[in-house]
């Protein structure tokens, strides 16, 4: 047995032994301990929630509603900030390059994480590596709507009727969209390819101008956001022919899907969800996931989602990550078919 140093008091010896024990214990702790501690304390300051699109749209509206709910559960303000531009790339890139601590979020969408990687030649971020998915918020169908007067005049009641008219009158039909590379544009080009029809594309500066063009008869049909078109369909101002997702929408239960109308493998929709910066510790991501999942189950949030044609169905970060990878792969082919590209 090692003898105690002659000038070391019993109290000093005890302190030295305790210190040695603490060092030994620290050496046995897992490397993830700092992350666990960070998750336990998180958040200790306000959270920044970036919306990469202008104010007033569905993503912005939902982000603000969720921010209010999440604030109550996390105990810190969630500040929504609109950073629009470049098809959502500016806001997304801001979050991609933020510190990986969970304090900067983005309401990412099908455009920022699945379409833009193939649309833009020089995307400033990697949609998979630079982000940590938290949860999907909504998956909303688009709907093929037609100018009502044109549809009645030409006895077009179904998508099959539209395709038959296009085949008899190649190049005479046109469709509008919110711009090159938009969801409406890609849906139209996919329909052209799968149905083997020739129709002209008219790009507008946003979905709202495209919708006005449809109502005025400047364009014949368009693939529109279901939430935006539902009131027009209800009032008989446009005719709904098909929804773009694999399943029918509860808002338009009597409107068939594109696939039900004879175009196989047609499953496109608008989705958006919460992401934080890639490399954020998993326990922090899990805490954010729970906060947003709980918020999405609150009655007013569920009602707002239903009005958009979606349902509250939060998923795990791991499941969301796999979903995003699958969407990115799917849209590679669709963007190629469309021929769209942006610098």
Overview of the structural elements:
The chain is of the alpha/beta class and 343 residues long. The protein has 13 helices and nine strands. It has helices at 10-28, 33-41, 58-74, 89-96, 110-119, 148-153, 159-168, 183-195, 207-216, 226-234, 282-296, 299-307, 317-338; strands at 47-51, 78-82, 104-109, 131-147, 174-177, 200-203, 221-225, 238-243, 269-277. Strands 1, 2, 3, 4, 5, 6, 7, 8 and 9 form a nine-stranded mixed sheet that branches. Helix 3 (58-74) crosses helix 11, helix 5 packs across helix 13 (317-338) and helix 8 packs across helix 13. The radius of gyration is 26 Å and the shape is elongated. Mean pLDDT is 88; it is low at 1-29.
Task: List its salient traits.
single chain; 343 residues; alpha/beta; nine-stranded mixed β-sheet; 46% helix
Q: Quick one: biggest sheet?
A: 9 strands, mixed
Q: Fraction of residues in helices?
A: 40-55%
pLDDT averaged residue by residue: 88
The end-to-end span amounts to: 76 Å
**String of helices and strands:** HHEHEHEHEHHEHEHEHEEHHH
What's the total count of β strands?
9
- Rg on CA atoms, Å: 26 Å
Total count of helical runs of at least 4 residues: 13
Kindly estimate the percentage of residues that lie in beta strands according to DSSP: 15-25%
Backbone structural class:
alpha/beta
Shape: elongated
Which stretches are poorly predicted, pLDDT < 50 over at least 5 residues? 1-29
């Amino acid at each position: 047995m090692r003898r105690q140093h002659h000038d070391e008091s019993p109290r000093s010896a005890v302190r030295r032994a305790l210190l040695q024990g603490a060092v030994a214990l620290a050496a046995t702790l897992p490397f993830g301990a700092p992350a666990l501690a960070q998750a336990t304390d998180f958040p200790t300051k306000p959270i920044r929630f970036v919306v990469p699109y202008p104010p007033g749209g569905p993503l912005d509206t939902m982000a603000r509603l969720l921010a209010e709910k999440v604030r109550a559960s996390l105990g810190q303000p969630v500040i929504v900030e609109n950073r629009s531009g470049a098809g959502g790339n500016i806001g997304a890139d801001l979050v991609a390059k933020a510190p990986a601590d969970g304090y900067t979020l983005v309401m990412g969408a099908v455009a920022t994480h699945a379409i833009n990687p193939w649309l833009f030649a020089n995307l400033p971020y990697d949609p998979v590596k630079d982000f940590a998915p938290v949860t999907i918020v909504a998956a909303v169908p688009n709907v093929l709507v037609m100018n009502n007067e044109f549809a009645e005049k030409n006895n077009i009641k179904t998508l099959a009727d539209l395709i038959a008219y296009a085949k008899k009158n190649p190049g005479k039909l046109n469709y509008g969209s919110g711009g090159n590379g938009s969801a409406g544009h890609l849906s139209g080009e996919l329909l052209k390819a799968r149905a083997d029809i020739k129709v002209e594309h008219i790009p507008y500066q946003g979905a709202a101008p495209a919708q006005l063009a449809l109502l005025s008869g400047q364009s014949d049909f368009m693939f529109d956001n279901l939430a935006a078109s539902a009131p027009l369909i209800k009032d008989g101002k446009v005719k709904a022919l098909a929804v773009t997702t694999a399943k029918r929408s509860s808002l338009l239960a009597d409107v068939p899907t594109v696939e039900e109308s004879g175009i196989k493998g047609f499953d496109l929709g608008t989705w958006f969800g919460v992401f934080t910066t890639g490399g954020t510790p998993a326990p922090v991501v899990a805490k954010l996931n729970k906060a947003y999942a709980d918020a999405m189950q609150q009655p007013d949030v569920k009602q707002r989602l239903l009005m958009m044609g979606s349902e509250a169905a939060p998923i795990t970060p791991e499941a969301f990550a796999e979903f995003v990878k699958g969407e990115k792969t799917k849209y590679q082919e669709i963007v190629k078919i469309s021929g769209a590209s942006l610098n």
